Amino acid sequence: MNSGIPVQYFLILATVMFFTGIYGFLTRRNLITILMSVELILNSVNINFLAFNRYLYPHKLEGMFFSLFIIAVAASEAAVVIAIIINIYRRFTTINVEDVNEMKF
Amino acid sequence: MASIMFILFSAMIIVFSILTVTSRKILRAAVYLLFVLVSTSGLYFMLNYQFLAAVQLTLYAGGIVVLIIFSILLTSHISQKFESSGWKKNIFSAIAAITGAILSIITILDYRFSATNEAAKEVNMRLIGKSLLSVDYDGYVLPFEVISVLLLAAMVAAIVVAKKGAPKTIGLPKINQE
Q: d(Cα A35, Cα B70) in Å, to the nearest integer?
């Protein structure tokens, strides 16, 4: 195996990062920090894909392309979310999720 | 050497991701997130995916973090501190996260991963470009086209949502009027 690091170490690292993101997602109340937790979660999944691809299927490229597409989806998601956040701030002058509880039009 | 780099990167990732979700100042949380993303791209370099590490650096660390920092500057005061959400919520979320992490780690350590004996494929730019545009068995032209439509839709949606609309259509009674 390359460089002697077992694949389990990468997976454990990604697991810790994923559940740190879950913790932030559950405790944070500001929309932007919730978005940052989601980015952490997506990033940890990318690490998993790449470790699996390099260690278990080094003759294929599926994991690499999957994480490439995940990065593209994450980028477009961040753009849309930030547009929504700016719109919410314009209307409610806050982005605290507990104060934004109306969908009245 | 490689194991030292791996320990360094993973320590940085774990410490800074915990700081990202616990920091009370929002701008600092964004900068810690930047450190996490840069160390992740270091891990990609260690795994020999140079193209993806460069994409990670430019798109995540360069694009998304800058976007997040801009929206932070637009929506909140820099020196403003969050009030901490109640200790009950913190403790229960921590219990949920730690339980999930322990279960996943036990499963990972139990599973026996079996590696193949096939030779590793050299990942270079020519191969990536050919795979992205090929319609063969290991081609990725369909997800490539779908992602291009998705990017266009996201761009249009972001512009439409964030622009100031005419008061007839979007101008609703303001909620917080002084």
A: 14
d(CA A53, CA A60) in angstroms, rounded, equals 7
pLDDT digits (tens, 9 = 90+) for B53-78: 999 999 988 889 999 998 998 887 76
Q: Model confidence over A33-75: pLDDT tens digits?
A: 999 999 999 999 999 999 999 888 888 888 899 999 999 999 9
Chain A residues in contact with B35 by the CB 8 A cut-off are none
CA distances to B50, B100, B134, B149 from B141, rounded to whole Å, are: 21, 37, 6, 13
The pLDDT value given to residue B104? 94
One DSSP character per residue, B99-161 reads HHHHHHHHHHHHS------SPPPP--HHHHHHHHT--STT--HHHHHHHHHHHHHHHHHHHHH
| Distance spanning both ends of chain B, measured CA to CA | 61
Chain A: closest CA distance from residue B12 (Å): 11
> pTM for this one?
0.87
Q: Does B50 touch chain A (CB under 8 A)?
A: no
Inter-chain touch B52–A28, beta carbons under 8 Å: no
A58 versus B169: which is more confidently predicted?
A58
Domain B1-82, second-level architecture? Up-down Bundle (1.20)
DSSP state of A3: G
Domains and CATH numbers, chain A: 2-92 (1.10.287.3510)
List, in order, residues 6 or more apart from A88 with CB less than 8 Å away: A31, A95, A100
Helix (H) or strand (E) holding B90: helix B87-110
- With H, G, I as helix, E, B as strand and everything else as coil, classify residue A30: strand
